[in-house]
Structure formats: structure tokens, C-alpha cells
Amino acid sequence: MCSTTLLLTLNLIVLTGGIASVILMFLIENQPSRAAWLIIIAGIFTIASGLIGLCSSTRRGCFTLQLVLLAFSVIGLLATAFAIFFRPTQVRDALDKPTYQVDTTKTLLKVLSAVTFFTGCVQGAVLTLGICVNCCDLNDYYEDIEMTRSMNAKEAKEAEKRAARKEESKSTQLAEQMREKYGKWTDKGQGGAAKK
Description:
The protein is mainly α.
């Protein structure tokens, strides 16, 4: 239960980070260029993985889809963070029409780099914890199935024993009834045959 609460919280952070990265990119460039669209798409994948993560922390069916979105999102966010961090001038030059002056754009790019790096690291934690929780849930599921089967097998054995005892008592009862009913005839028949 604690791990699902932690996953829920981490997915909220991922969702917030994805929204922040998209907003920051639109602040840097009002009409996004190709490079900006790549960053926005990574942010959209992040938002989607955060939303699906919120759903899959309470339901099991969305986990595979979340893994795929997490993988794409982590790659996109970390690539964005490292590109901005290690090559800020080239990233700024790849943007067609930055909204602000060079210094403000550099500052916003650094903030975007920090947000994407932090969100990517949180997504790595979500991915790791999600796999662990899902595997534990599957183990618990199969253990429950195994326990149910063993309980059903025990109940079946006990039912067979009860049926055998019941059958045994019925056959004993039938044998006694037959002895009482037909035993008299055989005794008379034997007695009658012995007299002749």
C-alpha cells in the first residue's frame, strides 16, 4: 500500500514536470521550431505517462502502456537535459525565433534543462518502483491462486472422505436391511429344506 502511494506521488511529480517543460518551451519560443517540437513531444509523452501512471497505480491494466510511454519519455527528457546542459549555444541556435533576449533565453533553457533532468530521474524511479510493485502484485496473485487451489484440493479430499463414510454407512445399513429381510427367508428356507 505504501509503494502505491509513493508511485502515485511520483506520478504527480512526473505530470507536473511534463506540464512545466511544455510551458517553458512555449515561453522560450511562441511558434516552436523543429527542435522545440521535439522537446514539446517529449513533454507530451511525459504528461501522458504521468496521467496513465496515476491510473495504473490503482489499476493493473495500464501498466504496459505506462512502461512504453515511460521509456520514450525518459529517453526524450534526458536527451533534452543533456543537450541543453552540454551544448546550450547549439540548442539556442536551433531555435528559430526565441521570444526573449539571449541572456533570458539561456536562463530559461537552463531551467528547462533542470526540470527535464529532474523529471527524467523521477521517471527512472517510477519505472523501477513500478516494475517491483507489478512483479510483487503478480507474485501475490499467483500465490493467491495456488493457495485457493490447495484449499480447494483439501476441501475436495475431505468431501471425498465424507462421501466414502456416508457410502460405507449406507452400504452397511443396506446389508443389514437385506439380512433382516432376506435372512429370515434363508433361515426358513434352510430350515424347511432341512426338514424334508
